[in-house]
């Protein structure tokens, strides 16, 4: 069912979430490229909704760093340059080890099992980059479910902001690269299961650092 077919009037929080998800997916896929203007009225017409939920959805995406609003310019898809992206990854190298060390002691058996399920799903999706990317995001965020809300919101923001270029970077991966990535995921999961927070901190830090260094080899991705 499409968003238009499933439109609800008057607008509801769930409608705003669906509109935000639709725009977010278009940004991640590259359909809406960095710097592209988002016309609220045209978007509302295409989704068969009023401008109010569209405006609220754009506010949500603005808080995630995916769009920017400037006086006399309206709303545009955010432009992220190489240095900004690299800086976000350096922040991730510091924040996500903290997130996982806080999360592990608070994770329930069911939450750990869900992380294991997502790990298994990742192994099955190596040949499907788009699906792998989304599953990778879900796996990592599942590792932090036991951390404080303020930390998880910060981490989610980092992931939302960098998702499009992660998709482009993934296109440069070989089968061996995917294999190494999945080995690192397995290491992170084993640390969670064993309750070894110190090892988990180092595993997640090295995993993020390796991606940042791989990114440094492909600055051309930011010209797309």
Can you tag this structure with a few keywords?
single chain; 224 residues; mainly alpha; Arc Repressor Mutant, subunit A; Four Helix Bundle (Hemerythrin (Met), subunit A); 2 domains; 3-stranded antiparallel β-sheet; disordered N terminus
In short:
Pfam families: FCD (PF07729), GntR (PF00392). The protein has 224 residues and is mainly alpha-helical. Helix content is 68%, strand content 4%.
Provide the β-strand percentage band: under 5%
Report, as a whole number of angstroms, the end-to-end distance: 31 Å
Average pLDDT works out at: 87
Largest sheet: 3 strands, antiparallel
Helical content, roughly?
A: 55-70%
So how many helices?
A: 9
Can you characterise this structure?
With 224 residues, this protein is mainly alpha-helical. It folds into two domains: 13-77, Arc Repressor Mutant, subunit A (Orthogonal Bundle); 82-223, GntR ligand-binding domain-like (Four Helix Bundle (Hemerythrin (Met), subunit A), Up-down Bundle), CATH 1.20.120.530. It is built from nine helices and three strands, in the order αβααββαααααα. The protein has helices at residues 13-29, 40-47, 51-63, 82-103, 109-124, 129-142, 149-170, 175-194, 197-216, and strands at residues 37-38, 67-70, 74-77. A three-stranded antiparallel sheet has the order 1-3-2. A hairpin with a 3-residue loop joins strand 2 and strand 3. Helix 4 packs across helix 7 and helix 5 runs antiparallel to helix 6 (129-142).
